[in-house]
Write a structure and sequence with these properties.
This protein is of the alpha/beta class and 149 residues long. It has 5 helices and 5 strands, in the order E-H-E-H-E-H-E-H-E-H. Helix 1 runs parallel beside helix 5 and helix 3 crosses helix 5.
Length: 149
């Protein structure tokens, strides 16, 4: 399974990068994560930012937009969703917007919209939260003791 995490913004703080790669190395070798950072250009509008992000989405990808209006899942439900994505057999592209969110075209292209929380997180931190949830979902699926709830 290949998941492309397409995020608006490049060069996050080192601790963000360290945390992301810590969780990435914990994932099984058959779950490949491609982190694609789309730089935010000053005075770039959301439409142009969205166009840049969508260039990284391939034609047959299942696209997931992380959006505050998206569906919220419990970790066990997210594990079921991850297993369903794996069973589909294709690649998954996950879109993470900037502090201003995602452009309408990104939301329209999405096959589904998920929300990580009703809380608001810094957009840089979302990449860490998402990959941690991937790891947690994998641990639930595989019976690994990481998830204890």
């Amino acid at each position: 399974m290949r998941i492309r995490l397409i995020v608006a913004g490049a060069r996050p703080k080192p601790w963000i990068t360290d945390a992301f790669y810590e969780y990435e190395k914990r994932l099984p070798s058959n779950m490949v994560i491609d982190l694609i950072e789309v730089p935010i250009v000053k005075r770039q509008n959301l439409f142009d930012q969205g166009k840049q992000m969508l260039k990284s989405v391939r034609v047959g990808d299942w696209v997931v937009a992380l959006d505050e209006q998206g569906k919220q899942l419990k970790s066990k439900d997210f594990a079921v969703k991850l297993e369903n994505w794996r069973m589909m057999g294709g690649d998954i592209s996950v879109l993470v917007g900037s502090a201003d969110g995602l452009d309408k075209n990104c939301l329209d292209r999405a096959n589904e919209k998920l929300s990580l929380s009703t809380l608001t997180f810094p957009h840089e931190l979302v990449r860490v939260i998402f990959i941690e949830q991937l790891y947690r979902a994998w641990s639930i699926i595989s019976g690994h003791p990481y998830h204890r709830a």
